[in-house]
Specification:
The chain is α+β, with helices and mostly antiparallel strands. It folds into three domains: 178 residues, no CATH class; 158 residues, no CATH class; 65 residues, Orthogonal Bundle (Arc Repressor Mutant, subunit A), CATH 1.10.10. The strands form three sheets. A four-stranded mixed sheet has the order 5-4-7-8. It has a two-stranded antiparallel ribbon with strand order 1-6. It has a two-stranded antiparallel sheet with strand order 2-3. A hairpin with a 2-residue loop joins strand 7 and strand 8. The longest helix is centred in the middle third of the chain and has 38 residues. It is elongated and about 90 Å long. The relative contact order is 0.13.
């Protein structure tokens, strides 16, 4: 375990000098997967006694993982200038150009009004159909129209569908990545080319090309139109799987944790060399290698401890799309006995693979919204979303009414705060929801 007490002493004494071993430990802990691979590659060039023994290390170094980036390569026409549009307005303009007046256009506009800030349709078609008193079959043509709008991938109901829609448009139905996204989604949950090649019986080169094509896709197509979740760039560090009875398994991925060993010849030479300069050089090189070996073990142990606490607390969010529970660095520091800066280093730039998809580990942090830390902002947003979904379409709830309902549940939130959270959820104001839903009610089934 990383010596987190060291950092307490550093805070208490500005004059305490850090030893080279301390510097190595703290640096290795804070590195992301790709940065760690680069760091070890540089070490190989500078230190002749070191060799990398991990069988997949070369592939991990050459392939930096799936990059989820807002500015992923795209055609200039893929997305509007977010400074001049919000997501709904941009999609609305396209729908009005694509469809004539009639039911399908009105249903498509209603669907567009229920997209979340990332461009996903989180309400089921059944819920949407019930809200405007039509059949699901009536909505499907409208949903297909929304999914044909730019940016590619909007209107998807899952990450798989989002990426599939983009691959279909970018590469075509016959492209291997498009087919994998449609029929072999589970094979892409590990970003290792060797594992993908083995699972689908591809060459390593072909598997690498598929993953490089995957990097061109955008998992949050609506993110450029407003504030969204943190951008993920790098190689996954931690994997989580959900088990029956609410249990979870957390594992630090070995592919992101290369291991070091010593070149046997140099180790023997350090004991037998006659030249003092050679002996001293090899002794210093071996000492540096031992520091890095220890730092790697401490990094893995710390990631396992910190990651396990975060994932266990937020298992509902990771496994079942429930809202985030309150969780802060300060609380984790008190629970684990680590210094806060140690936890921040452990979380920084680390990526989690879970049933929800690829997430920055830092996205599991959630500030409490109440003084007793019992309710998080995410939980309040979930309540607001549920209230609006279940409201009487003829009498949509105003922000003040929602605040009043929350107060009845013991959560005191100002009307302006409700409006802020509602806007962040991509939900329209009460009068706008009434206008949207009026379009649906007045149409024959």
């Amino acid at each position: 375990m990383l010596n987190h007490q060291l950092e307490d002493r550093l805070n208490q004494s500005q004059n305490l000098a850090m030893t080279p071993q301390m510097v190595v430990s703290l640096k290795v802990l804070a590195l992301s997967g790709p940065d760690l691979a680069s760091y070890l590659q540089e070490l190989l060039l500078d230190n002749p006694v070191v060799e990398l023994t991990h069988p997949d290390y070369a592939r991990a170094l050459d392939y930096s993982g799936i990059t989820w980036a807002k500015n992923a390569a795209k055609d200039p026409t893929d997305i509007a200038d977010p400074q001049n549009h919000d997501l709904y307005s941009y999609v609305e303009e396209q729908i009005r150009l694509m469809l004539p007046l009639g039911n399908c256009r009105q249903y498509a506009l209603f669907i567009a009004g229920n997209l979340n800030p990332d461009g996903y349709l989180r309400m089921s078609t059944r819920e949407l159909a019930q809200a405007i008193k039509v059949s699901e079959a009536d909505l499907f043509p409208a949903l297909r129209v929304v999914q044909q709008c730019d940016p590619a991938g909007i209107g998807a109901r899952s990450l798989q569908e989002c990426l599939y829609l983009q691959a279909l448009r970018r590469f075509g139905a016959s492209h291997l990545l498009t087919q994998i996204l449609q029929y072999h989604w589970d094979a892409l949950k590990s970003p290792s080319p060797s594992r993908l090649a083995k699972t689908l019986k591809l060459t390593n080169q072909r598997a690498l090309e598929i993953l490089q094509d995957l990097r061109l896709l955008q998992p949050k197509p609506g993110a450029a139109f407003g504030p969204g979740a943190p951008v993920m760039t790098g190689y996954p560090d931690i994997q989580m799987s959900c088990r029956p009875k609410g249990e979870v398994a957390v594992e630090v991925l070995k592919d992101s944790q290369p291991s070091l060993s010593y070149v046997p010849e140099y180790k023997r030479l350090s004991k037998t060399a006659q030249d003092p300069a050679v002996t001293d050089f090899l002794a210093q090189s071996l000492k540096q290698a031992r520091w890095v070996q220890k730092a790697l073990r401490e990094r893995q142990s710390t990631l396992q401890t910190v990651g396990s606490l975060m994932v266990v607390r937020q298992r509902g969010y990771c496994c079942q799309n429930e809202p985030l529970l309150p969780l802060t660095v300060k609380e984790m520091s008190q629970t684990l006995g680590f210094h806060e800066s140690t936890i921040r280093r452990a979380i920084a730039d680390k990526i989690l693979i879970c049933p929800r998809g690829f997430l920055p580990l830092s996205s599991l942090l959630c500030e409490p919204a109440t003084f007793d830390h019992s309710v998080s902002v995410a939980m309040i947003k979930d309540c607001i979303q549920c209230m609006i979904r279940g409201e009487d379409p003829a009498h949509p709830l105003s922000d003040a009414a929602i605040a009043h309902q929350l107060e009845k549940r013991g959560v005191w939130v100002a009307r302006r705060t409700v409006a802020k959270y509602r806007q962040e959820l991509g939900l329209l104001a009460a009068h706008q929801r009434r206008q949207q839903r009026d379009l649906g009610w007045r149409q024959p089934k």
